[in-house]
Amino acid sequence: MKIFKKILLLLLIIIIIALLFFGFSGYSLYKKSMSEKSLEDRIAEIRNAEYFTPIDEVPDYYKNAVVAIEDHRFYSHHGVDIIATSRAFMDNLLSWELKGGGSSISQQVAKNVCFTQEKTLTRKIAELFVVYQLEKNYEKDDILELYINYIYFGHGYYNIHDAALGYYNKLPKDLSFYEATVLAGVPNAPSVYAPTNNLDLAEQRQAQVISAMKKYGYNVEY
After folding, report:
1. Which of 52, 69, 79, 27 is nearest to 183 (CA)?
2. Which of 90, 137, 136, 127 is nearest to 105 (CA)?
3. Contacts of 187 (CB under 8 A, 6+ apart)
4. 222 in a domain, yes or no?
5. Is-contact 156 145, C-beta < 8 A?
6. Structural domain harbouring 23
7. Is 75 within the bounds of a domain?
8. 22-31, 91-100, 211-220: least confident range
9. pLDDT over 70 for what percent of the chain?
10. What's the burial of 9, exposed, middle or buried (CB within 10 Å: 0-12/13-18/19+)?
11. Helix H or strand E encompassing 193
């Protein structure tokens, strides 16, 4: 029994040391990123871009589709979806690799705006400090607006304006329900779900988007 307690104590100490190490590393990465350019300046650059699309210039069904498929608790959590994160953590633990997953819309904005796409625990922790800033200083619709204006849709399209124009020759406000729900599913895997790459796969993903919208109470009758 004493040996068992000692082992548990040793494991606890190791876990605490690991948390402190990665916490400090993540904070250091966050501070480095902010010293290079503040979050406010980064966001101002996005908003001042030529083809920035305000949130009220996209159809409601596109916004609803994005939230349903990407982060259905977006409007109720404070930047991190604990349930989705815990599920992704268990998947990563069981597979013995950091595959990602479980990131909220706020976390994706933090990653895309401030960091590289490298999948490391240090970067994931650094994201959390940016998420705190986002959730503290910006409204949810502001964060969603940043997301749709700074997410990759494939074929060199890095915002909803370019994706709508590139794939459908339309402005975002003119997207049909079909087109909007296709585009909502693309950022999950742009090389796979881009409608010009494989329309069948794009529409399979779209079916998942519509299913999520139904599941979480959004209107799909248009």
Report:
1. 69
2. 127
3. 70, 151, 152, 153
4. no
5. no
6. 2-215
7. yes
8. 91-100
9. 91
10. exposed
11. helix 190-193
Give the rounded distance of the alpha carbon of 214 from its chain centre.
Answer: 21
Q: Residue 171: what pLDDT? A: 98
C-alpha pair distances (Å), 27 with each of 82, 91, 137, 211: 20, 25, 19, 38
Number of domains making up the chain: 1
Identity of residue 186: V
Pull the structure tokens for residue 221. 């009758």
Q: Is 101 left (phi over 0), alpha (psi -120 to 50) or beta?
A: left
Of the CA atoms within 13 Å of residue 102, those in its CB half-sphere come to 17
Q: Which residues contact 121 (CB under 8 A, 6 or more apart)?
A: 22, 26, 98
Burial of 93 (0-12, 13-18, 19+ CB in 10 A): exposed
- CB 184 within 8 Å of CB 66: yes
Name the average pLDDT for the chain.
90
pLDDT digit string (tens) for 185-216?
999 999 999 999 999 999 999 999 999 999 99
The pair of three-digit structure tokens given for residue 163, joined into one six-digit string: 């994706």
Mean of pLDDT values over 28-48: 95
Burial label for 94, CB within 10 Å (0-12, 13-18, 19+), is: exposed
Asked, for residue 136, whether it belongs to a domain, the answer is yes
Q: Which CATH number belongs to the domain containing residue 82 in this structure?
A: 1.10.3810.10
- Calpha distance 59→175 (Å, rounded): 7
In a domain, 221, yes or no: no
